[in-house]
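Q: Here's a chain of 704 amino acids. Please give me its 3D structure as tokens.
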Amino acid sequence: MRRIRVGIDVGGTFTKAVAIDIKTGQIIGKSTVPTTHKAQKGVSEGIVSALSKMLLESKIDISEIELIAHSTTQAINALLESDTAKVGIIAMGVTPEKSNIIKRTSLSDAKFNSDQALKTEHAFLDTAHLISESEVSNTISHLKEKGAQVIVATEAFGVDDPSNEMFVMKNAILHNIPATASHEISGIYGLEIRTLTAAINASVLPKTFEVANFVEDAIKGAGVSAPVMIMKGDGGVTSMDTFRTKPILTILSGPAASVAGALLYLKVSNGIFVEVGGTSTNICIIKNGRPEIRYVTIKDHPTCIRSMDVRILGVAGGSMIKLKDRRVWKVGPRSAHIAGMRYSCFAAPEVLKKGKIIEVKPKQSDIEPYIAIQCEGETFAITNTCAANALGLIDKDDYSYADQTSAKIAMELLGREIGVTGPEVAMSVIQTASFEITKTVSKILKEFKMDKTKTQIIGGGGGASVLVPFVAKQLGIQYKKAEHAEVISSIGVASSMIQEEIEHTITNPTPEQISDLHKKIHQLMIDRGAVPESITINSEYISEKSLLRVSATGNVEMDSADNAKNVFTLEEAKNRASEILNVGTDLVDLSFETDHYFVFTGHISEKKLFSKKNRHPVLVLDRFGRQKLALNNAKLFLGGKISILEELDDFLESRNSEIAPQVYLLNNLKLIDFSSLTSVSHILNAVHEELDSSDKAAVIVELA
């Protein structure tokens, strides 16, 4: 029997489904339907429609599907459109700190809630004594009377002792009101940002809870019994229960899906991924085989949620045109899809010839009018796709290819309106539309110090050919169109693994604390549905922030490492290592290998005045080609447990330094950063403990 995964991307314009046979990596079915924003049960109707259409056309049996994963814009859309619930914040602390705690957790302050988009009520509980159930219950009732629809429990140092926050959560359940605790959202210190992030999360809970139920019920109603998962903003998938309780993790879920497709399916090492949809364009940086990750800012609100660094622009294949002073003034952000109009390049030429240019305001909120063509019985939008087709920029087999005759008629009508030829106005449209994309890509190149000669622009999305080749040509950068560009985001959803991350503020963590966090994330991964044997764990210590970050990846079901398309061969991994280390493949050796990791060592000879110095950079990649560790110069300790400990002890003692070096341990399932351990004895004890439970391992020590 085939093992099929289905990925469904719910975009602003279209809902796209893809079926992948994970044994072979082959795409065996795909379909696209309009996103059902206005349907009674929202986007879930479009999800089922896309799924049913694909199953029918591709003759896939429902019993062959082992997993359905989807991306969604529901959380971010609710926030952007202020479709949010009123949040009741219960802040806790001791009375002497009361005024300070209230100041730091009351989001009515413009510093935290500049546009007052978050609607909140506030209450304080004194934890100098053991808070009672009646106190908490009365506080929740009071907040509900003031209109609160959801509760946030937050306490100073709640990440160290979350018992009070959990007590409030328990009572909220008894009051039948959704709740979020700040320690659940993040383990970092900073009461203000933790409370703000929890409040943002809470504000969309009622909406996302409803959407999650609609989606699961709709898929079950279609007869599918496979588990349903959802994409997070960091490129991993997680359970629908996470969407019900922590929807903020799915912010930028849609853009992350397309980047995941580029990383896992296309195996891009260095590039700028530009996905052009119907309504918006998403731009993401891929460097050394992984996306840039950052803390997300939502409507000027800083959060402690980490997600892919995606730049979102309001211009795409379906963007409509504005005129001013007899010239093309702006393109977008309104799209033909949101306006409810068909593109003029998809109209019949004989219908379009009789049309006339008019001004329209598709939405009441539109201040300036857009241009359209009024024909008998229907009004058509003039879009970027029309301009690109009129100029002959779209190949016949491309998703965006349309009737060239109709596209030229539309451009001639528009050209006559402002006194230029059709080709001239078409080029003006493409230049105006691509300006923001060009500017953003230029900024990214500068910001991340990316070499133009070693970087490529990868086009994805149904509208990729409309704008991205033009941008690449303007910048003088190599262009590549993604295979299956129109459904690359759905491929990313289907290909992604379960991925989780925990951050904890710890000063000088001990080996036991590091181990405890590893156990915690391992259990979290299992709770999310990962197979225990598939879980790999990374930890890193950011000393300047006293922050221990532990991340893990795993799979719902073990894939075939022999032939799954997104697993790297040794040759592919070595080529990527050569590219990242910037040395020839003949100067890169595979030094160590496990079921989940490759460790490569480079050999570089550098001239230093009158002498030569040898340097050995070390790079750790996982089986999916993702960079896990890169050191400029390092030494490896391999072999049995006793020999590793003896050699490591001798080396550390021979350094004659009070300060311990950066030390990392890699076994089959973990890459552990021991850089937070400052004494040689602590490092040796930690390594000894890990080696006790490892069949084989490598210790990597960074050299100056």
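Q: Can you summarize the key feature?
A: The longest strand covers residues 26-34.
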